[in-house]
Amino acid sequence: MPDAGGQSHKTDVIIIGGGPVGLFAVFELGLLGLAAHVVDILDRPGGQCAELYPEKAILDIPSRMKVNGQELTNDLMAQIAPFKPIFHFQQMAEKIERLDNSHWRMVTDIGTVIEAPVVVIAGGGGSFMPKKPKLERLEEFEGKSLFYAVRKMEQFRGKNVLIAGGGDSALDWTVNLNPVVAGMSLVHRRNEFRGVQATVDQMYALVKEGKVNLAIGDILRMNGENGQLRSVTLKSSEKGEFDVPCDAMLAFYGLTMKLGPIADWGINLENNRVPVSTESFETSTPGIFCIGDMCSYPGKLKLILSGFHESALMAHACFHYARPNQKLRFEHTTSSSAIQAKLGVS
């Protein structure tokens, strides 16, 4: 279940990162009766797998001869569905503080507040940050009429929106935002797109219906005053310089990886990685754990399957924080009727 942001929540475990390791952590925690909220800066689950190589074959997932990033993500989402995790997409875990009750209070960059006794960092190589266009006056428009993600569709209702980019995000939002906007332009430097063919076909259908203005060219400059766009100037070999009117722009030029606010949380770091105990995958800060590519320990291998193993040990250590007055009862999924009931397996 997704969350639109700006709300307050309490849960057992906050997971930062919705890639394969973060998703499998939901499963391992769920087996122990622990609920999880997942925070991710992307607009969908899957992390690097779904965003950077959704169709690339992964060959070292146990029992799977071949699986691509999107298939693995879909299967993990189906596996954790019985535990009903709450997802906070397109949000960055910005601030964290310890409360008097020893719980953690996390605040995202759009004001969502989550309280839990345990925080698990499963952010892969760090937070995905948008690549910004090299244009003058960029900061003047950012956050006012220039955006790098769609946090709430209602924000763009009735606006004349220009979307820049040629990948999945640009195409997806061209299609999905179309019903709510007053006008829509899609700008790309060439008439070839990198997205899923079905979405490309949908976009061209909207162009044919007159619902999308497809403009081919390079963006030269943004035009407007006081942070409010009125148009964008493009240049193409065929038309020279020309303006495309808009009062909001979404720039989808891809993503880059940065460590993000985690670097300021007081956790010990070594070469931008988080050292952990291999018994529990707990960091130097009690109650904060780290699994997946971001954690560091002797012999660490940056593999998804390693992250799955780390998730299991982490979950058992988390139980003692989340349920300090209960005894952990270890059960195998093959023989536990209680676990099988949770999963809907007879």
How would you sum up this structure, described in words?
The chain has 346 residues and is of the alpha/beta class. The protein has 2 domains: 8-129 and 256-343, FAD/NAD(P)-binding domain (3-Layer(bba) Sandwich), CATH 3.50.50.60; 132-253, FAD/NAD(P)-binding domain. The protein has 8 helices and 23 strands. It has helices at residues 20-31, 47-52, 69-80, 138-141, 168-177, 197-208, 304-322, 337-343; strands at 8-10, 13-16, 36-40, 57-58, 67-68, 86-89, 93-98, 104-108, 113-116, 118-121, 127-130, 146-147, 160-164, 183-188, 213-216, 218-225, 228-236, 240-245, 248-251, 255-258, 274-275, 288-290, 295-296. The strands form 7 sheets. A 5-stranded parallel beta sheet has the order 6-3-2-10-22, covered by helices on one side. A 5-stranded parallel beta sheet has the order 12-19-13-14-15, covered by helices on one side. β8 (104-108) and β9 form a beta hairpin. The longest helix has 19 residues, at 304-322. The two termini are 25 Å apart. The mean pLDDT is 89.
